[in-house]
Design a protein that fits this description.
Two copies of one chain form a homodimer. Chain A has ten helices and 14 strands. Chain A is an alpha+beta fold and about 350 residues long. At the A-B interface, helix 1, strand 2, strand 3, helix 2 and strand 4 of A face helix 1, strand 2, strand 3, helix 2 and strand 4 of B. Strand 5 of chain A pairs antiparallel with strand 14 of chain B.
Chain lengths: ~350, ~350
Amino acid sequence: MAGAPTARDGEIPGEFALIDRYFTRPAAASGAGGVVAGIGDDAAVLRLPAGMDLIAAVDTLVEGRHFPAGSEPRSIGHRALAVNLSDVAAMGATPAWATLALTLPQADPAWLEGFSAGLFELAQRHGVALVGGDTTAGPLAVSVQILGFVPRGAALLRRGARSGDLIAVTGTLGDAAAGLALLQAPPASIGAQARELRARFEYPSPRVEFGLAARGIATAAIDLSDGLAGDLAKFAGASALAAHVELDRLPISAALHAYAAPAQVLDWALSGGDDYELLLAVAPERVADLAAAAAGCATPFAVIGEFGGGGGVAWTSGGRPFEPARGGFDHFARPSTQFTV
Amino acid sequence: MAGAPTARDGEIPGEFALIDRYFTRPAAASGAGGVVAGIGDDAAVLRLPAGMDLIAAVDTLVEGRHFPAGSEPRSIGHRALAVNLSDVAAMGATPAWATLALTLPQADPAWLEGFSAGLFELAQRHGVALVGGDTTAGPLAVSVQILGFVPRGAALLRRGARSGDLIAVTGTLGDAAAGLALLQAPPASIGAQARELRARFEYPSPRVEFGLAARGIATAAIDLSDGLAGDLAKFAGASALAAHVELDRLPISAALHAYAAPAQVLDWALSGGDDYELLLAVAPERVADLAAAAAGCATPFAVIGEFGGGGGVAWTSGGRPFEPARGGFDHFARPSTQFTV
């Protein structure tokens, strides 16, 4: 890093200089390409492959809002990048570079070690280079901006769904909400299934590989961050369609079924949030291709409903009408909102 | 915005839904191009002109750290973008798009009105479209990521200076530090010159036009955010050169001379920070071209020293050695540090 003060032998360097060391890793270490100038200048200089559109998204995690106070630093680092990778996945795009704005109350080396390990492990797995950022003293908050690319005009938009398209979802729903509940009120002893649920909150796996495979097959996609009920309402609204979902088709993990009562399972699956799965629209004649693409990257995949003319979301359970207890996305009740991405 | 709840007649909408309205302006309104999909999807889709490298930087402003508590919201919105535009200017690049991560304690319509006005006025002046972001409840902090572009390989890097290059600076130094002092301890009555100094802190003018004009003439550039002493040390370090500056050549405004004692003027000019001027290296045979480029965009411009072999920064005053009271950039003393950009 240009201009970082050099510690004299045996001297403890300035605390913010210390922080720098956790984040200034050569881009090459991540396997990412296209970094003309990274860390150490006024801005990063990046080279997009030819014929590509740029993808950009930003997401902030605030302590006590998006994760419990005292969360594992490794989990915070992982999640800060994962929630952004999930946005890239929902565009059918390749993630490439990230910047980090980190506000933290003090420079605790053990915390920074864990946080940066969580961030860089996931970055490396997806070939993402950290190319810029800043650190500021203040209440703990992490803002990551992700940059990626997609062939021109090929991005999977929310508005691309057509009437008659099926609605498909990856993975299982509600696990992360159960995991958060377990973190907020830890039981005296914790079994393998509860640990599995907790990991779904602490270490979500963004569906980047499947998002890439779905491009050209699915007609539209959105990532599930606020819960199926709210995000499906957004999805239907963006495509100016009505959505119908049959609750009996929702993919629920064995761990969640074992952990919670059916009504709680359903509430978490619909409105718990933090799933970071993909919700997609696909024409009926292409659904087998999409299922094959999911199988190709070992991604669980289920068809849960279909789009039709009109607006809003209709739910059925065993074919009979159902009204979720917590309906759509409530800006009052949520701690934050992405107004754009 | 997709999925935002619709207010029923006469009903006050959710407070975060209200926030969205301040930031969801059509990209076309800013005059910026290249927005394939902006607000309302999982990520923005952007199209870089052919033959360009992408430029990315991020900067965070935290209340009580980077601006006094209770600052004018319009100034906060202006500064949040200005500090990032200054980074783009220092690369000789064209700014194009920005994302915003806004954390704020409550949704105060008057505050949001002022903040968004300050942000969008400056965005429009520089053809920048806001293409993404999120809002979160929490202590007031603003993180902007700026994206821009520059012809391939033409970015003005910090490391490009050569031995024998002259050191030039735009504008005047120390005004913003005086302005901040005036904001922190407002005098009973305030004259025109004090108002001018205050405006230099509250509404900095990033040197975007001059940065573009300097590309191909200057050999290297850095923006002045932390004060000349610290930033010049970084600049010299990045280019592996020694810098020499003659203090009598520093550009000081009449307003600052009238406001403060000479020793205070010098301290603010060297170490006050928040100038957001450009510091450049230029070969002696090109300095007339750079001066002409500055004149062409009405940017004040002064040569203050030169680079030579070796390392570190040497200061003279009337030809005699001088040691600044506050020397280099001190990571301990500063509230934040950009570890990369």
